Amino acid sequence: MQKYGINNATPADWDRLRKEFPAVETTVIQNDACMDKPSSDPVKSPEHYNTGSIECIEAIKESMSEREFRGYLKGNVMKYLWRYDRKGKAKEDLKKADWYLNRLIDGIKG
Question: Is the separation of the CB atoms in 12 and 20 below 8 Å?
Answer without folding.
Answer: no
